[in-house]
């Protein structure tokens, strides 16, 4: 069998683009500080307290801290996570997208999936694990203590978990996170690229050099982000593994599989999809920021530096 040839439109090899690292960090910081963290808190609360409806979850969160309750875990954990995982995602996904197109002649859809999957896995093990664990702990831990007793700070809780359980304790659920991130960003990038191709055909932009406008980019990203929430059971599993919500029926040693079985036994198939509504909103917002705005920002940076953006095929 003849080897797969590179696409006819040559893709110029670019040097390591460190602007993608700073750009990814900035975009993710923007995403989480605006709509990201409130949607994360609502999603996590519903998944950890699976008897809660959307309104009762809002009431529970507001009761814990008013408006600031919706930003629990933002500082420092969400900021640490955002400033690192965004950089990892855009850098890794851009490079993998380029290599997939250059070496395997893949189109936007296939290279987008591979880039997103690689970026997601890299996120999980390099940045997201302990930050996501601590965010979930902060959102779900009880803060009702005896009168006159000071509520432990988030750093004291972190130190206590590390002292008792070591590195595994602060990275609890990291394998579920890796599965989530891999499927998340593989779906988001791939489906967004697929939506871009569909929009390009609908608008008569048959030439691959024709760029989508800002509205078309955002629409494609919103479609990709919304549809990528199909993996909600993995997200509910991850939250349950990290949750500090008291449940005497929960098995002591949780793996991804035993946690999924436990949630199903307690709450049925609906339990595996608790929190999917705010997660759809979160998925849309994250993908608009990291794929749609990310592509536009990379193009803007490339114009300023006189380079073609890495990982772009159109």
Automatic annotation (TrEMBL):
Coiled coil: none annotated. InterPro entries: MCP_dom_sf, MCP_transmembrane, Mito_Cit/Oxoglu_Carrier. Solcar repeats lie at residues 16-98, 110-198, 212-300. GO terms for cellular component: membrane; mitochondrial nucleoid. GO terms for biological process: mitochondrial citrate transmembrane transport. Keywords: Membrane, Transmembrane, Transmembrane helix, Transport. It is a multi-pass membrane protein. Belongs to the mitochondrial carrier (TC 2.A.29) family. This is Yhm2p. It comes from Sugiyamaella lignohabitans.
């Amino acid at each position: 069998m003849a080897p797969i040839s590179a696409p006819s439109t040559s893709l110029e090899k670019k040097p390591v683009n460190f602007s993608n690292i700073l750009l990814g960090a900035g975009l993710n910081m923007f995403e989480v500080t605006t709509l990201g963290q409130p949607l994360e808190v609502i999603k996590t609360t519903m998944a950890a307290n699976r008897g809660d409806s959307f309104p009762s979850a809002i009431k529970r969160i507001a009761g814990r801290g008013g408006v600031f309750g919706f930003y629990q875990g933002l500082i420092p954990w969400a900021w640490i996570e955002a400033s690192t995982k965004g950089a990892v995602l855009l850098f890794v996904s851009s490079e993998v997208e380029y290599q997939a197109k250059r070496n395997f002649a893949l189109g936007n859809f296939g290279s987008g999936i591979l880039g997103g999957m690689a970026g997601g896995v890299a996120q999980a093990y390099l940045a997201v694990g302990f930050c996501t664990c601590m965010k979930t702990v902060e959102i779900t831990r009880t803060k009702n203590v005896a009168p006159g007793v000071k509520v432990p700070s988030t750093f004291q809780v972190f130190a206590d978990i590390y002292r008792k359980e070591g590195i595994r304790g602060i990275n609890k659920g990291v394998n579920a996170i890796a599965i989530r991130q891999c499927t998340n960003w593989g779906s988001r990038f791939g489906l967004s690229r697929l939506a871009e191709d569909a929009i390009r055909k609908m608008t008569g932009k048959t030439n691959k050099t024709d760029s989508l406008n800002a509205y078309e980019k955002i629409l494609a990203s919103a479609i990709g982000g919304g549809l990528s929430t199909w993996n909600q059971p993995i997200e509910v599993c991850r939250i349950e593994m990290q949750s500090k919500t008291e449940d005497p029926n929960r098995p002591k040693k949780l793996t991804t599989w035993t946690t999924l079985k436990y949630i199903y036994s307690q709450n049925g198939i609906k339990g595996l999809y608790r929190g999917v509504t705010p997660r759809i909103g979160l998925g849309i917002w994250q993908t608009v920021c990291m794929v749609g705005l990310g592509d536009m920002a990379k193009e803007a940076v490339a114009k300023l530096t006189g380079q073609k953006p890495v990982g772009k095929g159109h």
